[in-house]
Structures are given as C-alpha cells and as structure tokens.
Amino acid sequence: MMKTFVLGDVHGACRALTQVLERASFDYENDRLICLGDVVDGWPHTKQAIDELLKIKNLIYLLGNHDVWALQWMETREAAEVWLDQGGRATCDSYKEGIPGSHLNFFRQAKYYFVEDNRLFVHAGVLPGMEAEECSDETLLWDRTMVQLARHLNSKDRKITPYDEVFVGHTPISSPHPVQYCEVWMIDTGAAWSGVLSMMNIDTKECFMSDVVKDLYRGIKGR
C-alpha cells in the first residue's frame, strides 16, 4: 500500500535528503512524496537534490519563494542581489556545468498548493479562514500570518482554516521534529541553518529526521 510523506525545506542539502529517505525506507516506485518547496539555496547540492527528487515516481512538488527566484534566474540568467545574498550563490555554483531541461520543467510544473482529503499542503500558508484558491501567490509563498496565529493560539481544539490539517514549510522552527499548532503542522526544522531536515508520514505522523545538516556539511561553506 502506498505511503504518503511530506518533506520540509531542503535548501540544497542533498546529503540530508538522501538520509531521511533512507531512514524512512522510502520506496521510490510506490510511495508518494509531497515536498513543501525551497529545495534550492543554502547548502551546495541543489542540483543533486533535484536529481534525487526526479527519481521519485510519485512526487508532488510545491513551489517555495526561493524556488521562484531560482526559476527566474534559470530562465533569464539574471540573478537578483537579494536572492544571491540568501543562498542563491550556492544554487548558481551547483549548476556550473549547465542547467538541465528537466530541472527547468521541474519548477515550471510545480504547484502553488495541493489539497487532498481536506488536507492542505503549501509552502508558507493561507490567510486565516480562507481557502488556498482564494489567496494570492504571494500569500502562498511568503505569508506567515496563519502560522503566527496558530502558534499564538497553540490549541489542537481550535481551527483557523477550512482544512482539517495544513502542512507548511517556510517558517523554520527550533524543534528537531515537526510540531503541530491548531491544525497546522510546521515541517521546516531548520535544515537551511543549524537544524535538521524532517520528513513525516502524513497518516501515522511518524517522523524521520536527518543528522544536523551543518554536521553533514562540516568544513563546506553553506549559503
């Protein structure tokens, strides 16, 4: 039976990605992976991370705000300084041998959100009380209003969206594993910085974490 997992922001840390997939005994042919975006920018293996994701038959990839910056660079070769300063240089460096067409298609075919069985998967969030289809792309990619409200209320008995569960990346947490506030699951456990990469089975809520990413890349400059 197919298992479905949700994955936090990879940020160029392919070593962490392969580690969590292995620890979850992820089946590349039969299981499904929903990625919450921002595979790019930070650690030096963006290209390798996308190559790894492209091996997965049942992959749903959602755009993150960093992914949009990276796609703009891939299409125009013009790099915004704000992007370069926030991990983009590492992404550029990972493509010194060229950008495969499959990687361009990877981002062009990505979704802004995914809904199934009244569960929402999105990079940043939605505005409280609103459905994803009612929200702007900027909200889906950047906004933290929903996350901030959920953390403030911190109650599993209260709902702030029309969904039974919402899975988000974008806003890193200091916890070494995903955390739930209201119906919102926060999956970004800081792989871009001093944390770990997390992946969770959406049905059983079993979590799989990498080693601390900076240890996996000890001696190698990130960002």
Describe what this molecule looks like in 3D.
- The protein is of the alpha/beta class and 223 residues long.
- The protein is built from 8 helices and 10 strands.
- Strands 3-2-1-9-10 form a 5-stranded mixed beta sheet, with helices on one face. A 5-stranded mixed beta sheet has the order 4-5-6-8-7.
- Helix 1 packs parallel to helix 2.
- It is globular, with a radius of gyration of 16 Å.
- The N and C termini lie far apart (39 Å).
Task: Offer a few descriptive terms.
alpha/beta; 10 strands; 223 residues; 5-stranded mixed beta sheet
Record the strand order, biggest sheet. Answer: 3-2-1-9-10
- Encode the helix/strand succession as letters: EHEHEHHHEEHHEEEEEH
* Helix content, binned percent: 25-40%
Shape: globular
The radius of gyration computed from the alpha-carbon positions, rounded to a whole number of angstroms, is 16 Å
Tally of helical runs: 8
The number of strands is: 10
Span between termini: 39 Å
Q: What proportion strand?
A: 15-25%
Low-confidence stretches: none
Give the averaged pLDDT, no decimals.
96
Largest sheet: 5 strands, mixed
Q: What is the structural class? A: alpha/beta
Record the SSE blueprint.
Blueprint: E1 4-7, H1 14-23, E2 32-35, H2 46-53, E3 58-61, H3 65-76, H4 81-94, H5 101-108, E4 113-116, E5 119-122, H6 137-142, H7 145-153, E6 165-168, E7 179-181, E8 184-186, E9 198-201, E10 207-209, H8 213-216
Parallel strand pairs: 1-2, 2-3, 5-6, 6-8
Antiparallel strand pairs: 1-9, 4-5, 7-8, 9-10
